[in-house]
Amino acid sequence: MPLLTDLPLEIIYHILGYVDPSDLGWIPLTCKSLYHAVSANSTLFKQVYLNHLDAPSRGPVNWEQSLKDLVRLRALSSREDVDDKKDELDFVHRAVVELLKHASTDGVSTDSMLLPQSRNADILTHIFSDESNQLAFLCRSFIYERARAEFHSRDIRYWHGPPKLEHQKSAHLHCLYGVPLLHAYPSARRQTRQNSMYPFASSKVYDLRQYTERNKWGPFMDDGSMRIDWEKVEAIMIVLGANMSTLGIPRIKMCETYCSIPFAGTWSNSWKSPHPPSPPRGLDSLEYLDPYGITGVWLRVVCFLDYTDFFAYNFGAEAQPPPHVPRSSINVGQATRLILMQIFVTSIENPGPEDGQGLPVVHFKGISRSLDQGFDENADSDLRGTVRLTPEGEVRWTTFSIFGGVERWRSESIQVGGVGSAKGVLGHWFDKDFDPRGPAGPTAFWKISDKNRPHNAGVSSVFAELNGLGGDYESDPDAEGDDRGGGGDEVDPSTPVS
Q: In Å, what is the CA distance from 117 to each residue of 195, 256, 263, 266, 271?
């Protein structure tokens, strides 16, 4: 049998293309022939990359550096001690963002109706299944530090100020991970009511001081820049996740990409329809020209406090804390509403001077219906809104809920993962006139179908489409709730249910 080094170079390159990325570090050290075969061989690095990772959906890609980053990410994440790797947050954030930036969807899972498949996402899922990696990199935002400090009877509320970069990067990683970690310590043996994140995330979400003219009452920095405040998005995700878990909603198939599966579609254009493609329309149709994939059926969740609790929390008799100090944690019951939305594109225009210039502004209209209210017409509302890019290139959604022809509620949200992500949209809802007395709260929505129906088909056709998806949208009565605490589900008539 001939030695490997005696084979033609083309065959050597083909064989080396199937080695593990970590092996490319030591193979050149074995002999001079393999050193020259590997060193600065961009074609070989590309082949190894494509044999282990997704074919990049956008690029260019530095094949060699990307593989080195992957090897380093795997190596440091394998360290057992949290303190031995937590200082690598900056690198881990950059490496994860790059892997998702170059992820591509390779079909939809056969055992999950809407879960996009990606080798990059599978790698990250494996890395962050380790609880020590969750604690080292995903649970480092201010609310987690605060929760752990109060758990250990240390008061760090005065630390709160302008968002710190490390807090933002950790919160961003958590949002890309996509599954809310509901305890200050991810380890199962330490998941107790005392270290639940629900009260601390609620403190951030329901504090009206977080809603200002400078951030347009959305999950943005309070400096007018419209940069995303990932700690706000993280708090929204935790509050919604805790409330949905209590109702057993994560067991619903069409909620998997939001509730329970890590890195489920948190990259651009990860949404893939579970249905056969619709018949093609003209190249000048609005749906064809829409880069965001708006038209279709979306599932929305809205949470809110009873207004009495909301008002008491923000304007109670207790002395108001200074601006840099968070309000006390709040652990009272919240109402949760599941809402079905059918929306379609109505017009497209060029971006304005305050928008990101990479894509147009797309306007849409539609209808929404609360699944909790049956077919009560009083629960119906019309919708209108826009989708555009922020100056930093993130996707911003603005929606208005319309009752009897009058706008009542507004939301400002961002799409986690970018344009066309299956993960969906998270943000704040509030009074359309920015009422300084509220109410306000968290919301999220994600696409479940892009099947086209006539725009005037009515709300009953939306429900027919939902049934046609084959999923179960009723909460599982046997689902076990989490230990977030909380009280009843009393609804204030001024609070949105659709």
A: 33, 13, 10, 11, 10
Phi, psi dihedrals of residue 105, rounded to the nearest 5°: -85, 120
Spell out the residues 6+ positions from residue 6 whose beta carbon is closer than 8 angstroms to its own.
none
Task: For the chain, count helices (H), then strands (E).
Answer: 15, 8
Residue 150 in contact with residue 159, Cβ under 8 Å? no
Q: What's the rounded mean pLDDT across residues 107-113?
A: 56
The 10s digit of each residue's pLDDT in 398-442 is 999 999 899 999 999 999 999 999 999 999 999 999 999 999 999
Q: Which of 374, 377, 400, 390 is nearest to 463 (CA)?
A: 374
Task: Assign 3-state DSSP to the chain and report helix, strand, coil percentages, each to 5.
Answer: 40, 20, 45
DSSP string, 325-387: SPPPP----EEEEEEEEEEEEEEEE---TTS-SSS-EEEEEEEEEEGGGTT-GGGEEEEEEEE
Helix axes 165-177, 230-246, angle to 10 degrees: 40
For 370-380, write each residue's pLDDT tens digit: 886 554 454 57
The percentage of the chain sitting over the pLDDT mark of 90, rounded to a whole number, equals: 59
- Quick one: which of 13, 19, 262 has its CA closest to 120? 262
Farthest-apart Cα atoms in the chain, separation: 87
Residue range 261-291, pLDDT digits in tens: 999 999 999 988 766 656 656 556 888 899 9
Separation between Cα atoms, residue 98 and residue 195, nearest integer Å:
32
66, 125, 127: which is closest to 98 by C-alpha?
Answer: 66
Neighbour count for residue 30 (Cβ, 10 Å): 12
- Residue 378 is which amino acid? N
Using CA atoms, how far apart are residues 237 and 174, in angstroms rounded to an integer? 9
| Global confidence as pTM | 0.88
**Consecutive H or E run containing 426:** strand 425-431
